Amino acid sequence: MGTRPLSLRNRELAYLVVVxxxxxxxxxxxxxxxxxxxxxxSLTYAVFFFVLYLAAHVVARFTVPLADPYVLPIxxxxxxxxxTEIYRLGPTDAFKQGTWIVIGVVxxxxxxxxxxxxxxxxxxxxxxxxxxxxxxxxxPLLPGIGQTVNGARLWVHVGGLQFQPxxxxxxxxxxxxxxxxxxxxxxxxQGQLKDWGPLLVIWGGAMLVLFATDxxxxxxxxxxxxxxxxxxxxxxxxxxxxxxxLFLAGAFAVYQGTPHVRERVLNWLHPWTTTKILCPxxxxxxxxxxCQSYQEVQSLYSIGHGGYGGTGLxxxxxxxxxxxxxxxxxxxxxxxxxxxxxxxxxxxxxxLLVYMVFVLRGFRVSAFAGDGxxxxxxxxxxxxxALQTFIIVGGILRVIPLTGITLPLVSYGGxxxxxxxxxxxxxxxxxxxxxxxxxxxxx
Amino acid sequence: xxxxLNRLAVVAVVLLAALIVATTYWQxxxxxxxxxxxxxAIQQVVQFTIARGLIxxxxxxxxxxANKKKKVDGNTLFFRRYPNGGLAAQTVGYATQSHSQxxxxxxxxxxxxGSNTDLSNAFHNLLNKLGQATVHGDSLRxxxxxxxxxxxxxxxxxxxxxxxxxxxxxxxxxxxxxxxTYDQNLIERKGGFAKVLHTQGxxxxxxxxLNRATQGLYTPGSTFKIVTAAAALDTGAYKPSSVFYxxxxxxxxxxxxxxxxxxxxxxxxxxxHLSLSTGFxxxxxxxxxxxxxxxxxxxxxxxxxxxxxYKVPPLETPANERAASGMYKYTKQGRVLxxxxxxxxxxxxAFGQWTMLVTPLQxxxxxxxxxxxxVVPRPYVVEKVVxxxxxxIRTTKPHTLGRAIKPETxxxxxxxxxxxxxxxxxxxxxxxxxxxAGKTGTAETGxxxxxxxxxxxxxxxxxxxxxxxxxxxxxxxxxxxxxxxxIAKQVIEALLGR
Lengths: 443, 498
Hints:
Chain A is built from 14 helices and 5 strands.
């Protein structure tokens, strides 16, 4: 079996070459569409991108030789799709995003190097992770460094660097949940109240801070991850039922109590009105589609404009005749509507299928893992990844009310990129260990 | 634990699959609805990156709709201009940035924006899109003759009314004038639309946007006698020489329906013995009242249908800008068509003073049918659709809507209509050297001395080249023979090159 580790990493390398070619084609088409000519500049981007992932691949070869060979190329593909679209929407942001991807790969490499022997030592620091998650979530509320963007207080601003600590809080919380639930799963399943204590304190704290910062998307995400892991650990559907019941009751209370939330729900149920209503932004009477639900509705128009085949990369319409951007937050929260317009149904469905493959690989890693902590960690990271995709894309597509959150690995945003590279590192560490155990290399 | 993990995996995959379904819904199923939304900012831009096709007259020199190029932030945008603003405005229509449209600009939008799925330009447009080049729409060449159109609009002036002129052989519409008209360039200007909406005419609030030629519904008055006479002759019940006795009235339901008060009638109040031909020539109501009683309302309604009544006449303009002619009744839902003969007064129906309402286009089709030997031509106004490179995308071929009456009936009607112009109520339409066939109509409006004045005609009578219908609303003591016939005469002269 001496050739197997090599063959796994060689497969990864082959997939990365395919992704590299795709990236080159993507950048070239954006360049042709905007400049009507082919240029070496677009190729430079693709080559740089390929070399970056080649470095990540080499690190993986030395640290986690037996890790799943699919997840790194898929992550590379998703970041490539995101970067291409961000480049098309504005080259300045693309440069920043490229820098963040470099940072993400470095963080990924560091995580692999430091945890290559046994990542399970993280279990010992579970309370540190639990409290750390809350601390990270709480940071934007601190005066001086906190910043409010788009009605939600999610940002920390330190010395010209903007950061969304909540994204990293997600990883920390998953580590805490995986460790705590692994240890207490039997007693929790029996329903002893004292064992629930720490769990409910940390989780309740997280929810409270999320409501204080008005980060409804993350609140929904954390709640979903919590219920999923609770179910995976205890196998008690009753807990999930109670959780969903509490969620509905809580959601109703929040709906009654918060005008901000009520508006979101109305935008979801009735984005178009036929009578004029009061627009709180400017105090005028107008249709809801021109005021409160403007973003959602224009985003749907963008998706609809794509049709089956899309307008083609670089040929979509995102600005008015006078050059104003039609959809605010296009390259973060609404990047899916930009992609759906330019790539069409074929491209958008393809993108979602790529997410699906990543999620299925993630659950496969979880299923083959040898111990409870590894299983729960991989499942938590994967389910969180899937649920986050559902929350933002489902919000854009009016499947659920819209809450602003990033599309994993595709949206513009440093914190999101870094935290998702940690998801990737986690999955590769777990799968490396699982495969090694299966081969009897480690006991 | 793997059982729970499998279930979680299924949940995650179902969530993602739901997103694919939802995306399919918005991009395939609902895409058309989204595109049609007025507040769709993308469509507002996309429309302006397309160089819409031109709309011009038959020789190409008179351009009715064109584009003005503007550079906005590096993008070349196209704004619609109407170099002959107001000329055939209701037929040409308009297209604005807020993408409200009317007329041919609305109904032919697919051609004008090059989005019709014609293989010849689909490939071309695809290449353009890939190269981000401007998409050029197809142009429309109309059958409208600008000279005659301009003359008709000038003759109508600020009176409310319409003129329709068409080829009785092919159905090509030469003149489609609706008065008062409006300048389409105003629509997008600040306050311009309100100004158009509040256009005042002699008739008061004039609804300048209304295409009176195709959607104006008027009482036909004595012009309807063409249809009644057609039924009378075609069924074989009467001949032009059939003799009637005119006591100055006709008895219906035991009551006198007097000729007096028919402003259209020429000659003495009481004719005594006279032929159908003479009754037609002088528009004697009692003659047609008796024919109506004899034939019955059902037969007359059947004949109107043969001429195309009760159907919205075909034309390239939007369907909601055309109306069907026929008897109307008033219900809670508004005005609705009815062909219920049992509710109709056959005598009054026969001389066009019942609940029958007609459009000028329909009456031009009636005249054309007589001129065309009894076959109804299918009207059209777009002669050709021309691609951006000058190639012909589509040419309209003349069609008919079927035979309404026998050729002999048409010949007899032609003779009777000639008499109207040569020595009857329509002498004002005489043109030296050209025999004009026509019929006057002066319909009561319910207000004393205020009439709807009609003239329906074709010329030359022996080789018809043009059929013309003229209507003028709310004419104070203005009769078809005195106010409408002169307009028809000048339009015919212009079209025949006099």
